[in-house]
From TrEMBL, chain A:
Membrane topology reported for the UniProt record: Multi-pass membrane protein
Entry-linked InterPro entries: CPA3_antiporter_subunitB, MnhB, MrpA_C/MbhE
Domain MrpA C-terminal/MbhE residues, every copy: 27-89
Transmembrane intervals: 12-29, 73-92, 113-130, 136-155, 175-193, 213-237
Keyword Mitochondrion: no
Species of origin: Aquibacillus rhizosphaerae
Protein's name in the database: MnhB domain-containing protein
UniProtKB/TrEMBL annotation, chain C:
Keywords: Cell membrane, Membrane, Oxidoreductase, Transmembrane, Transmembrane helix
InterPro entries: ComplexI-like_HydComp, NADH_UbQ_OxRdtase, ND/Mrp_TM
Descriptive protein name: Proton-conducting transporter membrane subunit
Localization (cell): Cell membrane; Membrane
Topology term for the membrane: Multi-pass membrane protein
Chief location category: membrane
Transmembrane spans: 25-44, 64-85, 92-110, 141-164, 176-194, 232-252, 259-280, 286-310, 331-350, 370-388, 400-423, 443-463, 501-517
Domain NADH:quinone oxidoreductase/Mrp antiporter transmembrane positions: 109-355
PANTHER family: HYDROGENASE-4 COMPONENT F, NADH-UBIQUINONE_PLASTOQUINONE
TrEMBL record, chain D:
Name of protein: Proton-conducting transporter membrane subunit
Residue stretches making up the NADH:quinone oxidoreductase/Mrp antiporter transmembrane domain: 122-415
Keywords from the named record: Cell membrane, Membrane, Transmembrane, Transmembrane helix
Membrane topology: Multi-pass membrane protein
Superkingdom: Bacteria
InterPro entries: CPA3_Na-H_Antiporter_D, ND/Mrp_TM
Similarity annotation: Belongs to the CPA3 antiporters (TC 2.A.63) subunit D family.
Transmembrane segment boundaries: 6-25, 30-53, 73-92, 104-121, 127-145, 157-178, 198-222, 234-255, 267-289, 296-315, 327-348, 360-380, 400-420
Location relative to the cell: Cell membrane; Membrane
Keyword Transmembrane appears in the UniProt entry: yes
Species of provenance: Aquibacillus rhizosphaerae
From TrEMBL, chain E:
UniProt keyword annotation of Transferase present: no
Protein topology in the membrane: Multi-pass membrane protein
UniProt xrefs under InterPro entries: MrpA_C/MbhD
Transmembrane segments: 6-23, 30-47, 53-72
Domain MrpA C-terminal/MbhD: 11-76
UniProt keyword terms in alphabetical order: Cell membrane, Membrane, Transmembrane, Transmembrane helix
Localization (cell): Cell membrane
Protein name: DUF4040 domain-containing protein
Organism of provenance: Aquibacillus rhizosphaerae
Superkingdom of source: Bacteria
Length: 240, 111, 518, 488, 77
């Protein structure tokens, strides 16, 4: 009897999900049939005017760090929150690493890779407004340095190179710097997080030092994300 | 490209199904990841225009895909990553306390 | 303008001051006498208006009926406070002040909103009075509070119906939602079926609490009934049934205060009958009866209180102490019993006569006689235990002076009204054209009393018998059990399984989709 | 209206600086937390006083191209709630948490930043982002004790609210797909010519997502679990602000984006009222069974929020006023109750119903505050809960939801049953010797402050109603809101 | 041509997702996760979103997988 009940329950769950899928299918079908080329004046404006207004070739960067920079502030806060939660949940203690120790070839490879990673991360951050990438992606690449150190050597070593306190400090400085860069707009008589509208000089589109504050914001976000993800990873590793 | 929307629906519902049926905590987090990915895919599809180029305007262009969904997607990725990380560390914590990953045995709270 | 209810509430606030213990006597004396004087000099027709949100409220309005009621409330307040000031603790005294103050405000309120608020405040303060009073009254207080809140919510619903039907909150006879208002009043005046709180509370609560409660709770119900639902003829029969039920139950009790509480049900029956007639005579008879009833029932409760205070219990056997050691209490009790039985030249006679005169239906008249008869019978039982049966009780404590003072005040007033009934009429300008002391009225008044004496002597054995098994059936507890069981079953569904919760969520989603799509 | 954006930035900055102070400048911690809270209060008051007529602040000066922040009376109400609750919360938790205070206050400030962001923003996606911020930091606070039950409850909370977030995000993306914009003023204009079916499905997704966060039955199960073993001052903010911010978002989305006409047409109003009635009836039944005070108060929160939903969903001006007033009142009353329970748990570790036996005589004034707040939450006069319930019932009757009005009174009775039980336990004499740590003034003062507000708002309801009566102007008819947001 | 590749990729995406969910062994799931992420990244590139592709590559395929691996490592032994 209980078996039958079990089967029935499973069928019920599948039924629920399938019904929902059916609804979604109809919804998407209706939306799709509605009007395929609905006018999106917002994105049209971004595409046609974005480069002049913000000075960043990478439109995603200009949306992310200028038009909708407030979202990015929330997103940065999100990482900081997660990092703080993890750092809080994991008490400061000795770490337990993976059971296997790596051969020396791994360690050597990692040693070789690390500088490249550093360069890659810096490139992604600094050229975020002219090419794909940006502060977020670059930050993650930078954090991978710490992560690789942790994986190949040990948490102790990784934290000897960069102390957890320092990481936390970098993260907070990144976040504060982001807000302060935003406030720069207020100080120059414009609005909060103003960049394109605050005449910081958009420069020649396509150059590194262009697009006003966007490169600097990229740097801040990069620092923040890198440090935050490194904290998250190390905390997870240290959790025992 | 329309079939991609179907894929989104399938992934979304699969994720929801995983969340509501699977007993293993880690499987539930997998479900969360899948739903998240499906939503990012949906964002990309929403922004996509046939024959468009990427929104990096360093050369001549005719049709450019919508940059806004891509920006939203980046934000979503970060948020999803943070939430997943917090969930996973809590899974570890729960395993430390309860010595199990089975969701039916994690029920000290009831009533 | 200082209203008496406001005075009492201020008194409650004043008692919060971190003053010397002795100061409470002064404050109580000042407030109670002050309220009495203020009430005495109120001019009928005066009213006070107040803008509150979108409503125009009339928190204070005087007319002859409310003045009469307010006056007796103030007098009884003076007596009750001076009776209990010595015994009760400071928090309880505060609650008593709030209780009396809100009762007085209800009496003088001119709109439904104020009426409801202070009606509820009465409930709250009296319940806390019961809960805080002693260790044995927690459950009783719980029960009392729930019962009365149910009643007042019913009143609130009636008020809402009235408001949405007429768009005004003024205090007229209700046009919509009468059944709900009647339920509320029925709970308050312990109508049969809604009376379960009453014997429970009055027998368990400390005696001074019972005194204070017995003065106001039911009487406010009667007053509001006279205001909101007067002239519904069918209710007269209901009142009769309630009263007869009260008599039957009262005769089967083995605790003095339970007897007294069932006797309240009987007496309230008189008032219900008077109000339901709807004529001027009927209503004023009911109001006069309210005054008289407060007087003698308070004295009786106080006397029982003295017995409890001096001997520690309120079994019938303990009453024997009265004859031997408490002369003043004995006199007061005798006067009150004469009054409640409707013997001429005592105060109950006057109002009973008015009600009887206002009645025209023979069945009801017969019922009224029966009620008088039953009342006398049950109090003969009391007399038997107090003055006839031998007992060997000893005093534990002497009654305090303030207790006797409060009782004495009311006894004197009873005697005054009894001998000169026109006093009340003159005081309030309500003139009922009746000659109380002619032959016809006198005979009809004394007849039930004499009958009851005869019956008592004949069937002494049955009346005085101590009943072991008490009739007690409570449907409300059954309903409460249903509520608890439902909650238990529901809470068992919350067994901590996350899958289950998520499944509920998804089911809700699909349900919502289905509901909103089609 | 520069101050509006400071409402969001200041707590964020404080949280960031607290992170540094935790490592390097431990000494300035106290001054940082309290000083920032006081300045925050000042800013909030400025913003609230300027909330009528609504003001728009464009972030980045992009106008409609970017994200805008708008203060209108409805968000002003929420800022008022933050202003009332936040400083008492800070003062209380400063003493309540005996160790590890830094992280606690970081999370608290992040949570308040998230909530104020949700309340102020006019961008749909930004709303989602800030909602996630507040949810995650709220989770962090609720597992703050690191006990088994705390972590388990938080995990359930996190999973459930993530599920809700997914649906909200899905609906947000679809909204962008349909309209090409995320600005709350432009969406309703673009929504006008969209078929009924699409709109109603989208609305369902929004409603479902937010309803999980609100905790309507049967989506409520995470709520008592998350409350049971969390730091009690957090529960004040959680029931007062986190749940309410979800209500805010739901109401904002429904009334502004979809409009009252569509709600009426699609039957959402009827469903909302019916759902509310079911919710509070069941929640009262469940609350009676609880022995843990936190759980009891959590179930009571569910019920009270159902009242709020009824008020907000009857779809009239009076209903909106009543519902908003109850939002404020519930925050105050539940805050008082939680703070009193918090003091009990601080002094003698009492969170079960049986533990508080006899405390009425040990803490007379605190118990009196508890009694006042619980009578207020039950809805007895002359306290504030009665006023808002009166308004809700009146609005429901006026709008024709007679059954809802009737059941609200029934619910009042049911809620009395369990609160009275607690009160009676409080005043039952206990012979045992209790080891009591005397609560200090910084614990008592916030409690008394909130408790006195219960009485003040009950006696003088026109005080908050001055602000609240302006809410329907910009909510019931979305025309004004859209005009102000578009016209600048 | 690109369309066919795209459809195939979608098919693989769904298959990997199903495999990830329904396989019994958690290690199998966790190994499938970067595959899933990688397919997603290619789809993003086809959909002309290089920035998101980069982020997705690092986040979904990289870090999240690492988190899962750590979690499984910590919980199974």
């Amino acid at each position: 009897m209980s078996r039958l009940n079990e089967v029935f329950k499973k069928l019920y769950k599948i039924g629920l999900v399938v019904t929902f899928a059916y609804f979604l299918l109809f919804l998407f079908y209706d939306i799709h049939n509605l009007d395929n080329n609905r006018k999106r004046y917002l994105s049209a404006h971004y595409i046609s005017e974005g480069v002049q207004e913000t000075g960043a070739i990478n439109l995603v960067a200009s949306v992310l760090y200028d038009y909708r920079a407030f979202d990015t502030l929330g997103e940065a806060t999100m990482i900081l929150t997660a990092a703080t939660v993890l750092a809080f949940l994991v008490p400061i203690s000795k770490a337990t690493t993976f059971g296997t120790t790596f051969k020396s070839i791994v360690k050597q490879t990692v040693k070789l890779i690390l500088p490249y990673l550093a360069v890659l991360g810096t490139y992604l951050i600094l050229f975020g407004h002219v090419s794909p990438g940006g502060g977020f992606v670059g930050g993650v690449v930078l954090s991978i340095i710490a992560i690789l150190l942790t994986i190949t050597y040990s948490v102790e070593f990784s934290e000897y190179i960069v102390k957890p306190d320092q990481k936390k400090l970098v993260e907070d400085i990144g976040a504060i710097g982001f807000v302060l860069l935003g406030l720069l707009g207020v100080f120059t008589g414009s609005n909060f997080l103003a960049n394109g509208q605050a005449y910081f000089g958009t420069g020649n589109a396509g150059e590194v030092f262009s697009a006003g504050l966007i490169p600097f914001i990229n740097v801040m976000i990069g620092l923040k994300v890198g440090a935050g993800l490194a904290i998250i990873f190390n905390s997870l590793i240290k959790e025992k | 490209m329309e079939i991609a929307y179907v894929a989104v629906i399938i992934l979304f519902c699969l994720g929801i199904y995983t969340i509501i049926t699977k007993k293993n905590l880690i499987k539930i987090v997998f479900g969360v990841t899948i739903v998240e990915s499906s939503l990012i895919l949906l964002l990309m599809l929403v922004g996509y225009k046939p024959d468009g180029t990427a929104p990096i305007l360093d050369k001549e262009y005719e049709i450019v895909v919508d940059p806004i969904p891509q920006a939203l997607a980046l934000t979503t990725v970060v948020i999803g990553g943070s939430v997943t990380a917090v969930m996973l560390v809590m899974v570890i914590k729960i395993h430390r306390r309860y010595r199990t990953l089975n969701i039916d045995e994690i029920r000290k709270l009831r009533g | 303008m200082i209203t008496p209810g406001f005075l009492y509430l201020t008194g409650a606030l004043l008692l919060f001051l971190p003053l010397h213990e002795r100061i409470k006597y002064i404050i109580s004396f000042l407030i109670t006498t002050g309220a009495l004087i203020v009430t005495f000099y109120l001019i009928p027709g005066y009213s006070l208006q107040l803008d509150f949100l979108n409503y125009t409220l009339v928190p204070f309005k005087v007319d002859s009926i409310s003045k009469l009621t307010g006056l007796i409330f103030a007098v009884a307040g003076l007596a009750a406070v001076s009776y209990s000031v010595n015994i009760c603790s400071l928090p309880n005294l505060r609650l008593i002040f709030v209780f009396i103050g809100s009762a007085l405000t209800v009496v003088f309120s001119g709109d439904l909103f104020t009426l409801y608020i202070f009606w509820e405040l009465m409930t709250i303060s009296s319940s806390f009075l019961i809960i805080m009073a002693s260790d044995f009254t927690k459950k009783t207080g719980y029960y009392y509070f729930l019962m009365h809140v149910a009643g007042s919510l019913s009143l609130l619903w009636g008020i809402f119906l009235q408001y949405s039907a007429t768009g005004s909150l003024s205090l007229n006879a209700m046009e919509a939602g009468i059944p709900f208002v009647l339920i509320a009043i029925a709970v308050k005046l312990a109508f049969v079926g809604f009376h379960t709180w009453m014997p429970l509370t009055y027998s368990k609560a400390p005696f001074y609490v019972a005194v204070v409660l017995s003065i106001y709770t039911t009487k406010v119900g009667v007053y509001v009934m006279a205001r909101l639902a007067s002239g519904i003829n069918i209710l007269a029969y209901a009142g009769l049934i309630s009263a007869l039920f009260g008599i039957v139950m009262a005769l089967r009790q083995n605790q003095v205060r339970k007897l007294l509480s069932y006797s309240i049900i009987t007496q309230v029956g008189y008032m219900i009958i008077g109000i339901s007639i709807g004529t001027f005579e009927g209503t004023s008879g009911a109001m006069f009866h309210l005054v008289n009833h407060i007087l003698y029932k308070t004295v009786l409760f106080m006397a029982v209180g003295v017995v409890i205070y001096t001997t520690g219990k309120d079994e019938f056997d303990n009453l024997g102490i009265m004859r031997k050691k408490l002369p003043l209490t004995s006199i007061a009790t005798l006067v009150a019993i004469m009054g409640i039985s409707g013997v001429p030249f005592f105060n109950g006679y006057m109002s009973k006569t008015i009600i009887k005169d206002a009645l025209h239906e023979p069945l009801l008249k017969l019922g009224l006689d029966l009620m008088s008869f039953g009342t006398s019978l049950m109090f003969l039982k009391l007399i038997y235990y107090a003055f006839i049966k031998n007992s060997s009780m000893n005093l534990v404590k002497k009654p305090t002076i303030s207790m006797q003072l409060g009782m004495g005040l009311l006894t004197v007033m009873m005697l005054l009204i009894g001998i000169h009934p026109y006093l009340l009429e003159n005081l309030t300008n309500i003139h009922v054209d009746i000659n109380y002391f002619d032959k016809k009225h006198m005979i009809s008044g004394i007849k039930p009393f004499l009958w009851s004496i005869a019956i008592f002597i004949l069937f002494n054995k049955y009346v005085v018998k101590n009943y072991e098994r008490l009739l007690y059936f409570d449907i409300y507890r059954k309903m409460g059990k249903l509520f608890v069981t439902t909650g238990y079953v529901l809470s068992n569904y919350h067994d901590g399984k996350l899958n289950k919760y998520l499944l509920w969520a998804t089911t809700t989603l699909i349900t919502l989709l289905l509901l909103l799509m089609f | 209206m520069e101050a509006a954006v400071w409402v969001i930035i200041l707590p964020l900055l404080t949280a960031f600086f607290l992170g540094i102070s935790k490592l390097y400048f431990k000494r300035i911690f106290f001054y940082l937390v309290t000083g920032s809270a006081i300045i925050y209060l000042y800013i909030l008051i400025i913003v609230i006083t300027h909330s009528y007529p609504p003001k728009v602040y464009s972030i980045g000066d992009w106008g409609l191209l970017g994200i805008n922040v708008m203060v209108d009376p409805f968000s002003g109400l929420f800022l008022l709630m933050i202003a009332i609750l936040f400083l008492p919360f800070i003062i209380f938790s400063m003493k309540y948490n005996k160790f590890l205070k830094h992280d606690y206050f970081i999370f608290a400030y992040l949570m308040v930043a998230g909530i104020s962001g949700m309340v102020l923003t006019t961008d749909l996606f930004n709303l989602y982002v800030f909602m996630e911020v507040s949810t995650l930091s709220s989770c962090a606070l609720s597992l703050y004790k690191k006990t088994d039950r705390g972590i388990e409850g938080t995990f359930k909370y996190l999973i459930m609210s993530t599920l809700g977030s997914f649906f909200i995000l899905l609906a947000t993306i679809l909204t962008y797909y349909l309209t090409g914009t995320l600005n709350m003023a432009e969406i309703p204009l673009a929504f006008e010519d969209i078929p009924f079916k699409i709109k109603s499905t989208m609305m369902t997704l929004f409603v479902f997502g937010y309803a999980i966060k609100i905790g309507l039955i049967p989506l409520h199960a995470w709520l008592p679990d998350a409350y049971e073993d969390s730091p009690i001052p957090y529960n004040v903010l959680s029931s007062g602000l986190v749940l309410k911010s979800a209500v805010y978002a739901l109401i904002r989305v429904l009334y502004i984006m979809f409009g009252i006409d569509f709600l009426d047409e699609s039957g959402m109003l009827t469903i909302g009222v019916f759902w509310g009635v079911i919710t509070f009836l069941i929640a009262h039944c469940l609350a009676f069974q609880q022995s843990n005070l936190n759980r009891l108060l959590a179930y009571s929160s569910i019920a009270q929020i159902a009242y709020i939903m009824i008020g907000l969903f009857v779809g009239t001006e009076a209903g909106l006023i009543a519902g908003s007033f109850h939002i404020l009142n519930h925050a105050i009353m539940k805050g008082t109750l939680f703070l009193v329970v918090g003091i009990f748990s601080y002094s003698l570790n009492a969170v079960e119903k049986k533990d508080i036996k006899g405390l009425g005589y040990k803490f007379p004034i605190l118990s009196f505050t508890f009694v006042v707040a619980s009578l207020a939450i039950v809805g007895l006069p002359p306290f504030n809960g009665f006023m808002s319930k009166w308004l809700i019932v009146e609005a429901a009757l006026e709008a024709g939801f007679v059954y809802a009005a009737f059941f609200i009174l029934v619910g009042t009775f049911l809620s009395l049953t369990y609160y009275l039980k607690v009160i009676v336990t409080l005043y039952t004499k206990n012979e045992e010797e209790l080891l009591i740590e005397e609560p200090s003034l910084s614990l008592k003062l916030p409690t008394f402050f909130l408790g006195s507000l219960c009485i003040v708002f009950g006696m003088v309801p026109s005080l908050p109603l001055n602000l609240i009566t302006k809410i329907p102007t910009f909510l019931l008819d979305n025309g004004d809101y859209i005009r102000i947001l578009l016209g600048g | 041509m690109i369309n066919i590749v795209f459809y195939l990729l979608l098919l693989f995406l769904i298959i990997t997702a199903f495999f990830m969910v329904f396989t019994k062994d958690l290690s199998n799931s966790v190994i499938t996760l970067p595959l899933f992420g990688a397919i997603l990244v290619i789809i993003f590139v086809i959909l002309q979103a290089p920035g998101v592709a980069l982020a997705g590559a690092i986040m979904t395929a990289g870090l999240t997988t690492a988190f899962f691996v750590i979690t499984i490592n910590k919980t199974e032994y």
